[in-house]
Amino acid sequence: MELEKIKNEMDTLNSDDLNALIVFIQDRQLLNDYTKILVDALEAKHNDSISCPRCGHHHIKRDGHYKNRTQRFRCIDCGKTFTPYVGTILENTKLSYITWLKYLIIMSHDEDLRDCAKYAGVSLKCSFFMRHKILNALAHRMETVELSGIVELDEMSVNISYSGNHSKHAENPLPRKPYKRGRKGNRRDKKDQNITDAVQIASAVDRNGHILLKVAKIGSTTLDNETTTAVYLKHLQKATTLCTDGLYVYRRLSESLQINHYAFPAKSKAKRGIYHINHVNYVHSQIEKYMKKHNGISSKYLNEYLAYIAYMIETRARDVHDYFVDIYQCHCDFRRENYIGTGFIYESISLG
Hints:
Layout: H1 3-10, H2 15-46, E1 60-65, E2 71-75, E3 81-82, H3 97-108, H4 113-120, H5 124-142, E4 148-158, E5 199-206, E6 211-218, H6 225-232, E7 238-244, H7 248-257, E8 260-263, H8 278-293, H9 302-314, H10 320-329
Parallel strand pairs: 4-7, 7-8
Antiparallel strand pairs: 1-2, 2-3, 4-5, 5-6
Helix pairs in contact: 2-3, 2-10, 3-4, 4-5, 5-9, 8-9
């Protein structure tokens, strides 16, 4: 059938049929391209040299195939057998690579779990685990971020969410009773003054576009010197100047790093030459936008979602090829048992 005839036929389709046709064309495009995407991801990950995940040596030989026809390798030094997908989002997966590519496409469009499940052709439960496998890899990527040159620092406060923690988890009781008519904001509990309904997010961005987002403190309305040093210090070894708001702990941080420091009023748009905090304020606006659309993100998963938000801001207007290659290179140690029936991690809460 000629192209013009196809176009004429498309004019007769209703919106549902047209959307189904678009999905079909996208799937056909993925079918043609997925082999190249996977090969590029493997080359970027292993750099033409596969190493043993146990001992790190490169004395590797081929050792047949698994039942799913995946190539098996054996380390000559320690004898461990493994696949080239170990430590990645494809480790221990029974889903096809096309399913993962489709999931990355719809997830990059900022859709919720149900829409992602429908587009990728998986169940809602499977969609949850696929999403958190991707988020786990990006959270490991966040640990390797290095900020250099002029770096903008600021913190933002969001409400604690105990989503996923209910009365059925009697072994993990919540520190407060559920709200019945909404919360009143980041304020202390009337009955227990040690409980503050706030999470402090540490954020930083340099002029190269690298972004650092982490949960700094849970149950507090501000940051202290110890927390600031623990969160920021290892990521700022190449920084030359800090641009922050007026919080005093940032002055102490710049003194410990022995670099220049420029302080601005909170959410200020003022500039002193090339120094300002507009970029980090933009990052805060994107966090607020994402959390407003995806209401109910549990605070125990907040670090992973922050890593995803940072990645999406850094890599705007990129295609599924680049997404898959980037995420495939990130280390992933996702285990399902860590996401089933897990209570709120009290050891990480700093009530103050």
